[in-house]
Amino acid sequence: MKKDEQQIVLSFPAAHGTDSLSRPFDYEVRAEYVEGDVIRPMCTKRIYQPSVQWSVKRDAKTVTCVFGACELPSHKLRFAVTPLNSLGQRGRPLYLERA
Fold first, then answer.
1. Of the four, 23, 55, 66, 95, which is 20 to 30 A from 46 by CA?
2. pTM
3. Which domains, and CATH codes, for the chain?
4. pLDDT tens digit at each of 99 positions of the chain
């Protein structure tokens, strides 16, 4: 029997827009290793907005991304979450530090 893998579950508030161009289509979630002035991306995932096919009134409140513990190094990481609209235009990223 396969042993369950340890996971890092990252939940973040969904970005909200008022029209189709400002509404997020998906998110880029990036785990970064930060040391001084150097920022090194370690792993990047793209997560669809869970309610992208529904009207704005039914938008999801939170979005979740799961990383397997084996995907990431054990040192201090920072997670960057960037919303993208359907044309690939990026919004402002959110950052979360993990010790």
1. 55
2. 0.82
3. 7-98 (2.60.40)
4. 567 778 889 999 888 776 666 778 899 999 999 888 888 999 999 998 887 777 777 777 889 999 988 888 888 899 999 999 888 889 999 999 876
d(CA 52, CA 23): 8
Residue 34: both structure tokens together = 């930060």
Question: Would you state the structure tokens that stand for residue 37, as one six-digit string?
Answer: 């002035």
Tokens (6 digits) for 55: 């009207």
Alpha carbons 70 and 39: distance in angstroms, whole number: 20
CA distance 26 to 83: 6
β-partners of residue 80 are 30, 95
